[in-house]
Amino acid sequence: MNNGMQVIVETLVELYHNSYGYTVQYEATIMSDKGDYDTPPSVEWDYVIIDVEREHNSCVGVETVFSRDLDEDTLAVIDKTIDDDIDSNWEKYLYN
Hints:
25% of the residues lie in helices and 45% in strands. It is an alpha+beta fold.
């Protein structure tokens, strides 16, 4: 993207799925062009999951799990949550 901005952000999201609470730490690269008077900036991002912790709602204790060990449904929920987080906060991440 020309004449734009790029930032690398490391943050986390929390979500609940199938009786588990998940805390997912990820690193995202967010890129944006400048846009112009009539066109808002174009924003793209890519991310890597760094760490996943989960806790069952009826047990005490947190376990670290590998994303490769999670089922496809849980991974899809995590991916959507991360995408939603970046989509909602990209301006804050780029400009702060």
